[in-house]
Design goal:
The complex is a heterodimer of chains A (297) and B (412). By secondary structure, chain A is mainly alpha-helical. Chain A has twelve helices and two strands, in the order H-H-H-H-H-E-E-H-H-H-H-H-H-H. Classes of the chains: A mainly alpha (297), B alpha/beta (412).
Chain lengths: 297, 412
């Protein structure tokens, strides 16, 4: 236990800002997960691996001398087609089955992706350098790498863009209709098969954006996907499906929680504390649900 | 039903036949000495696994082409059976069993990483199979009383010992204030124990002692504390991801610290991935090509590096060099034992006292090499941003003078 974070007020400010910037990025990944969970009732265990794959795209652009920030444009385009491909190959066979089957299927995809990435890109930890500088606040007591600010900004832009797209475009309306009632949407002439493919593609594209951002803020490694899956799962559980402001808030909340856990418990408990929080929330939700059920009886 | 039975007995007969025929493939076949090795060719250690395998292969080719191993007046050649352990300790232990009990291997080479060596050592020990390993440095390997395990590398607790001692020396013999962050795995924690020992002996104080998770990719919290507490030395060890994350965030957060000491810089290709941002970082290394150790097979470090480059197309990391050295040790031990009896070879290994291009090799009773100090190199960049690793300590091998303290970010 270390309470330095409370002794030095500037560390508290630093932790909050770091957490919020990080949380916005997590929220973007979680938004993709919520979208496809809501529309297709699929919990995608391979979410984190799609993120990492997106990161590798930005990394390879960087290797070939293109600034990795362009990854946030290129990576989602490629990842959209990867997503549609996964849907056509695997997901369309499990989309109408129960949740357990889809979890198994995406778990399989996750393992496959990890191994394929390891095979194709090697087991080295890599990163892309953006060359963005640093922002100093409060007489340089608080330090924010510009790459983190950039990634939060890009995440917000993509999230807003997606909300507008879902509200205004034809496909967006079809997606929302399918989420509300797939059968009714089908009867009314929506090609749900296409909607599902597009949804999975959109989710993968969001992962692509997030991955590109992670490659310039953190590091990329074929086996680093799972923590991102867990985080987005957790954010969606807290926020509920179809609740975008909720996803954003719970994303930032998780980011700040992680930072404080890091300072107080130590970095080794950072991911552990996320798991613990997840368990607590699930227990709490169940407890609430069982009370409701009793009431119904 | 009857047909099933017939098929079943047929299959078991074939299986028995096969297994007996495999056993006859023993350690020394004709003029070949067969060594076994489980290596991580896939999975998370695959890049270092390949470095290890390349090191082994390079030495096998060299020894075979230069006359092989002479035992009892006859010349033998080395051959290695490899299996892929998938970077998985359980699989590695299974494969060691398989190599010994099915393939009949009587001498083993080590896998990559302390964790996998730990998984294999009990198996080789059980069968009394001598194993020379080159990539397991964890101290706990050498405290278990293993009789058949020999490591050509210096144990993990010595990795950054030199750095602390150098810092104290530069501080006029007075203790320094140390901030440290270590991943929670066997190897890094051993490095940490070494620092604790060195701190105690030099009267230094540890003011930050953080542990890093396996999924480490953010250590901003540690660095914020470092900024606040201003230690004299910052020590980081968390394999390649630790080294890469530390340099990225130290540069981004403009953390000023007089000395930064790390492990795994060359495996992380620090100077290539981070360029000038990695400048002045001190890195612990088992070997560097500019060291002037010599032997008859590879001549010296520079020649080894050039030959390796020609064969495999990249500069050899120390993981390859130490793996090559393992075979030189085996050859030497076979010739001195003048026999293929496992006990005799084991005793000959224990009495090893030789110099290779990689360094002097002499084993302590625990099996670790006590005759080869670690070296520290510092990443140094020229005006054009081209960075190189230069040995700065111990002084005997130094090819450049240590730059200390590290210039502040505002002055760079």
């Amino acid at each position: 236990m270390d309470f330095m974070v409370f002794q030095y007020p500037m560390i508290t400010v630093q932790a909050c800002l770091d957490g919020i910037l990080l949380g916005i990025l997590f929220a973007l990944i979680a938004y993709g997960m919520a979208l496809q969970w809501g529309v297709m009732n699929i919990i995608n265990i391979a979410q984190g691996d799609l993120v990492i794959l997106g990161g590798y795209i930005a990394y390879f652009m960087y290797l070939y001398g293109i600034h990795p920030a362009w990854g946030v444009i290129v990576s989602p385009i490629i990842m959209y087609f990867v997503g549609v491909g996964i849907y056509k190959l695997v997901i369309n066979k499990v989309v109408d089955r129960d949740l357990f089957i889809s979890i198994l299927a995406t778990f399989g995809i996750s393992i496959l992706f990890m191994q394929l990435m390891n095979f194709a890109f090697g087991a080295d930890v890599v990163l892309a350098n953006s060359g963005y500088g640093t922002t100093f606040l409060f007489d340089s007591a608080v330090v924010l790498p510009n790459s983190k600010i950039f990634s939060a900004f890009v995440s917000i832009v993509f999230a807003i863009g997606l909300v507008i797209y879902m509200k205004k475009s034809k496909l967006g309306r079809a997606i929302r209709a399918t989420a509300q009632n797939a059968r009714a949407a089908k009867i009314l002439g929506v090609d749900t098969e296409k909607v599902y493919a597009a949804t999975f593609g959109l989710n993968a594209a969001l992962c692509g954006v997030a991955g590109a951002l992670i490659s310039i803020t953190f590091t990329i490694h074929p086996y680093m996907g799972l923590p991102y899956t867990i985080r987005s799962f957790m954010i969606v559980i807290v926020a509920g499906l179809g609740n975008l402001p909720g996803v954003a808030m719970s994303g930032m909340g998780l980011g700040v929680f992680e930072e404080f856990a890091d300072y107080i418990l130590g970095t080794e408990f950072r991911i552990g504390s996320v798991f613990l929080l997840l368990v607590l929330i699930l227990v709490y939700r169940r407890f609430k649900l069982s009370r409701k059920r009793e009431y119904l009886k | 039903m009857r047909i099933n039975k017939i098929i079943l007995s047929f299959i078991s007969a074939v299986a028995i036949l096969l297994s007996t025929s495999v056993v006859s493939l023993a350690k020394v076949v004709g003029d070949k000495i067969v060594l076994g090795a489980a290596i991580s060719l896939t999975g998370k250690y695959s890049s270092n696994g390949v470095h290890t395998q390349n090191g082994y292969n390079m030495a096998v080719d060299r020894i075979n082409s230069m006359g092989g191993v002479k035992v009892g007046g006859k010349t033998y050649k080395f051959e290695i059976i490899y299996y892929d352990d998938e970077s998985n300790p359980k699989r590695a232990a299974q494969l060691a069993e398989r190599l010994i009990s099915q393939d009949g291997v009587e001498f083993m080479l080590g896998p990559y990483s302390s964790g996998l060596t730990k998984a294999i050592a009990p198996v080789t020990e059980k069968y009394g199979v001598p194993m020379v390993e080159a990539n397991g440095a964890s101290r706990s390997l050498f405290t278990k009383g293993y009789k058949y395990l020999f490591a050509v590398l210096a144990p993990a607790n010595l990795y950054l010992d030199v750095a602390i001692r150098t810092a104290v020396e530069l501080n006029g013999g007075k203790g320094v204030r140390i901030a440290q962050a270590f991943e929670q795995d066997a190897f890094s924690q051993d490095v940490r124990l070494g620092i604790l020992d060195a701190a105690k002996e030099t009267g230094s104080e540890i003011i930050i002692d953080d542990k890093l998770p396996k999924e480490l990719n953010d250590m901003a919290a540690t660095l914020v504390k470092v900024k606040q507490m201003k230690p004299d030395v910052l020590v980081v060890s968390g394999h390649t991801k630790g080294a890469l994350t530390a340099i990225r965030q130290i540069a981004e957060m403009k953390v000023d610290v007089p000395m930064l000491a790390m492990t795994h810089c060359d495996a992380a290709k620090l100077s290539k991935q981070h360029g000038k941002n990695s400048q002045y970082a001190l890195c612990a290394s088992q070997w560097h090509k500019t060291l002037t150790y010599k032997d008859n097979f590879f001549k010296d470090g520079m020649t080894y590096a050039a030959d390796f480059q020609k064969e495999f197309g990249y500069d050899p990391p120390y993981q390859s060099a130490e793996s090559s050295a393992a075979l030189l040790v085996f050859k030497d031990a076979f010739e001195r034992a003048n026999s293929f009896d496992q006990k005799k070879v084991r005793d000959a290994l224990a009495a090893t006292n030789m110099q290779t291009f990689y360094g002097n090799i002499k084993f302590a009773p625990g099996g670790q090499n006590v005759d080869k100090p670690m070296v520290l190199f510092q990443v140094m960049c020229d005006g054009a941003g081209k960075c190189e690793n230069k040995v700065v300590a111990p002084l005997k091998w130094a090819s450049a003078k240590l730059i200390h303290p590290i210039p502040k970010w505002s002055d760079r």
